[in-house]
Amino acid sequence: MQTYRIAAIPADGIGPEVIAAGLQALEALERRGGGFRLDVTQFDWGSDYYRKHSVMMPADGTEQLKGFDAIFFGAVGAPDVPDHVTLWGLRLPICQGFDQYANVRPTKLLPGIVSPLAGVKPGDLDWVIVRENSEGEYSGHGGRAHRGLPEEVATEVAIFTRVGVTRIMRYAFRLAQSRPRKLLTVVTKSNAQRFGLVMWDEIAAEVSVEFPDVTWDKMLVDAMTVRMTLKPQSLDTIVATNLHADILSDLAGALAGSLGVAPTANIDPERRFPSMFEPIHGSAFDITGKGIANPVATFWTAAQMLEHLGQPQAARRLMHAVETVTGGGVMTPDVGGTATTKEVTDAVCEAIRGSNIVP
Ligand code: NAD
Ligand code: MN
């Protein structure tokens, strides 16, 4: 039997609540007899670790993660620790250290969930946003001079490389090609950002030649928010820079009902290192400890993890269970239900146990 080594990093806020729910669903899948086993190791890194050690993870943190098949990540963020510390101290070193350059963010309106967009039904909104995850606006280059003085200057440099843009473009075209509609929208702000993003447009055109069966178009990011809101049916696969896709995917999550249902996978397509799977949302300290965090985003990213590990049947079984449960109205308050995290999780595990068809 195939055994996969999983590193679980629940971290902060509702992270531990949703990761516990996700692990419970994965265990139900294992028991259901998928022909695989998960060997899970828990890491206590995050803001609590920071309060004790002044770092979010040990210096050899990424080294410790190297031998795992995948990383299952909760969220970072605490009221008393600066956001740039939690982000740059844990999540980004993993993404960048393992060159997880493709951040894949599916959005779909699930059965039973009502979109804030009037008249939009399941099927009308079914997108995958591919986010460039290794460079661009989050490459970490910049600086501040004359700190605190009236003449203070700060730079935040976005870096785009031919290698970096070409590989994410190829990934996005290939993904678009694998989906039924074979449709890709390339997002930039190349009217205003004339260097990196004009190169982005040029490379999109070059790579498109390798994928003659993919229909593609270009959008400016501001106009894209309008298209997502007014014509959701016109979109399928979307590729955008680190910053733009970060913003668009929060919007996508909200249009699909809640950030609580939006998953993401940080993938190293070359499989040199472990990839990382996490809900898009943050630590949500406004609802931490209340038992009402929506675990659906975490179930969905667990399905992405199973798919990546080579267990597509278990991934489909998990998503089928989730859709059965949301369709049956068992949902947390963020998507209009009254159920707790535990009730949704128990219902999903029950649906996994009861499912005898593989969709
Ligand atoms: P957030 O995603 O934590 O929460 C935004 C809103 O959505 C809140 O009202 C929250 O209650 C709700 N929400 C989020 N996830 C939910 C879920 N699973 N179920 C129900 N409701 C949910 O974003 P924020 O409030 O801007 O940030 C809180 C902290 O999280 C900050 O410190 C921020 O830096 C951090 N953050 C971390 C990540 C990450 O770890 N990847 C991502 C975003 C924000
Ligand atoms: Mn974000």
From TrEMBL:
UniProt EC number: 1.1.1.83, 1.1.1.93, 4.1.1.73
InterPro entries found in the cross-reference section: ICDH/IPMDH, IsoCit/isopropylmalate_DH_CS, IsoPropMal-DH-like_dom, TTC_DH
Q: Name the keywords, alphabetized.
A: Lyase, Manganese, Metal-binding, NAD, Oxidoreductase
The residue ranges of the Isopropylmalate dehydrogenase-like domain are 5-348
Q: What are its cofactors?
A: Mn(2+); K(+); Mg(2+)
Q: Which domain of life is it from?
A: Bacteria
Q: In which pathway does it act?
A: Carbohydrate acid metabolism; tartrate degradation; D-glycerate from L-tartrate: step 1/1; Carbohydrate acid metabolism; tartrate degradation; 2-hydroxy-3-oxosuccinate from meso-tartrate: step 1/1; Carbohydrate acid metabolism; tartrate degradation; 2-hydroxy-3-oxosuccinate from L-tartrate: step 1/1
* Alphabetized NCBIfam families for the sequence: TTC
What functional role does this protein have?
Answer: Has multiple catalytic activities. Apart from catalyzing the oxidation of (+)-tartrate to oxaloglycolate, also converts meso-tartrate to D-glycerate and catalyzes the oxidative decarboxylation of D-malate to pyruvate.
Report the protein name in the record: D-malate dehydrogenase [decarboxylating]
Species of the source:
Aureimonas phyllosphaerae
